[in-house]
Amino acid sequence: MCMQGIEIKDKTHNESGSFLSFDLREILTVIGDSALASSWRCQYIECTGENADVMHKISDERRIISGSELMQIVSGIFQTIDGEFEAHHGGENSPWLIIRAVDSSSFDVISSDSEVLERVRRNFGEVTDLPPDAA
Known about the structure:
This protein is of the alpha+beta class and 135 residues long. Helix content is 30%, strand content 38%.
C-alpha cells in the first residue's frame, strides 16, 4: 500500500504572534465518514483543552478508540501540540491514514487514499507535499 503525504501550515497572525488556524478536529471533519468509520490509535500526544486529560490517558494506555469517540474528544481540545493519530480499517494491521501534529507548527497527513489527500488539500490554504520517505 503506497502512502503519500502532505503538510498543512495554515496560520493566523495577531499581536501575540502567529499560530495554527486549525486543529485536528478540522482535519477530521474534512476527511469525513471514512475517519469516523475507522479505529484510531493515538500516541505521543501533547495537547491542551478541556478533554486534554482524556486524550493523554488514551495515549498513555495505547488504547484503540472509534472515530466517533475521537471526534467527541477532539471537540474539547484547544490545541494539539504533538502526537500521532493512526486510522485503521476493520482489523487491518497497517494504517490507511496517519495524522501527525508537529510541535504546534504543522500537521502532516499521510494516507494510502489519494482522494482523502486531495480533499484535505482543497480545504486548507498552505499545503505542501511531503517527501516520499516521510510517508
